[in-house]
Amino acid sequence: MNIFQSIKRLKWYETLIWGISVVTILISFFIFSERNPYTLITSLIGVTALIFVAKGDVFGQVLTVIFALFYGIVAYKFRYFGEMITYLGMTAPIAVGAIVTWIKNPFQNGEVRVRHTNPRLWIILSILALIVTTVFYFILKCLNTPNLAPSTISVTTSFMASSLTLVRSSYYALFYAANDVVLIILWILATLNHLSYLPMVLCFVCFLANDLYGFINWQKMKHRQTE
After folding, report:
1. How many whole angstroms separate alpha carbon 168 and alpha carbon 120?
2. Whole-structure pTM value
């Protein structure tokens, strides 16, 4: 993994997507007097991670681990224990696993080899997601987590997205996009209490755009690799 090579492989429109995301987050941070540096750092790391993940570059998974650590801190401060536990206890470890599987399955130009998913894999992941969601629901309920319903749904979408990333499926991006929508709602609710969380809302709006691009690009990768 060469960070400088990863940066050089970014196409102009990918750099543009990243740049617009960064500028949007910076503007949202500086426009309000109530500023939380953790939300800014977390958001910037997150959008940077996503553009590399969208390219199938393992550097994106390294940044995902760092993002999960910072996001866990932000979530803890607002008592979104579901988000904290999900990202620290699930997303970060799975991202570490993804680093290993991506390195072991290279294609060309720093690109991971895309895996074709089958019905058996979907059945296994669905059963595991049901178990994880049920367990987390009761944990979050015991912790008096705010906005319990969307927090629980976020666990489900995060688990599916992370797991599909681990197995190198292009459908990871669709589940992350679904997770982004849930998180946009969660952080809007948090922003109603404290404006310093607005960058997190815009962060996940940018995440949504990046994940949709990620799905499109991974579909192109799969087609190219099949040929």
Report:
1. 15
2. 0.85
